[in-house]
Specification:
Layout lengths: L1 H22 L4 H23 L7
Helix pairs in contact: 1-2
Length: 57
């Protein structure tokens, strides 16, 4: 559940930044590149933040 909320929030952030870049008349290919990079960063950050500790054996 926590991962889903984190991912949803990051998706909203990416959408807002992409829309802002669109309004600033940035080329579409750079908007896509930025969105892909941010999506990858968001996935890595969400996994490391919400991952549970491994139990000690």
């Amino acid at each position: 559940m926590s991962f889903g909320l984190y991912a949803l929030g990051f998706a909203i952030l990416i959408g807002g930044l992409a829309y802002g870049a669109f309004l600033m008349h940035m080329p579409a290919h750079w908007i896509v590149v930025g969105a892909i990079v941010l999506a990858g960063l968001g996935i890595v950050k969400a996994v490391t933040t919400t991952r549970e500790k491994d139990p000690r054996v």
